[in-house]
Amino acid sequence: NHEHAVLIEPETWSAEVGEAVPVRFLAVDGTGPARRGRLRWRTEQASGEVSAPGDTVLIPMPPAGESCLVSVQAEWVEDDRVLAANRIELTCLAIPPWDGAVHFAGDPALALALRDAGYEAATGASDARLLITDNLSDATLGRVRNGAQAVWFVDARAEPAAPMQLAFLGDQTRILAREGTWWQGDWASSCSWLRKTGPFAHLPGDPMLEMAFADIMPRHVLTLETHRLLKQNIWAGLAVGWLQKVVGLIAYMDYGRGSLVICTMRLTPDRIRANAAARAVVRGLVALAATGGR
Q1: Inter-residue contact 207 to 235 (CB < 8 Å)
Q2: Is the pTM value of this prediction over 0.85?
Q3: Which of 89, 118, 170, 240 has the smallest count of CB within 10 Å of its CB?
Q4: What whole-number distance in Å separates Cα of residue 126 and Cα of residue 123?
């Protein structure tokens, strides 16, 4: 335990290039917020200081360039003596625009959020081979069997999706709720990752899912048959302990003459609008479907 500490509290952990993130800096000691000294903060792009106990500052992301992690550092200084220091990383995202029409099936609110995010809606269901849906209907499955590529947002609605068995993909392929299972993850017993290559190469950092993804972590997981795990159908997953009981968060599946990308992350309309990491994941899902799982 430390007598002095600097808290760094961002309003959001991700933003797109050129945006700014409100970040609260706060000096605290054993009695609470401390009103002596100053807080100095800095990134590669900017720096500044505020009087203790602290204030909220707009931290600019790089104005252009590739996705990156932005280090935000802060020191609590009194009479040129550093009392405490802290550091966090924000995720700055350069999300490539999507060129091509997409058919939206399901909740109109999801379709509107995706259009606002830059996805062009096909004028009719037959005008696009690429579909995005939050409801895997028989009609959508029929189109996939006949050669379409579909992206299924399992948990895009406010109410949790019901557990279900996806018998058409194998006897062990199921959507399961995390609550009350091995994968609940409410203590240090699990880890989550995403392969940040290929269609997800615009996501910076190592494969582990960091704070930028906390708001879209799923309420459900996807169980798969062992041979599908070995074929690397999973692009994002969760494991218990040291890579045991692996389940999927994002998976690519061939079905008939088409393909289905299943995502259990919470890509609700409000999150797509407010969360840059959510929009970056959506871009990766669409590219994953369109490129045949590569």
Answers
A1: no
A2: yes
A3: 118
A4: 8
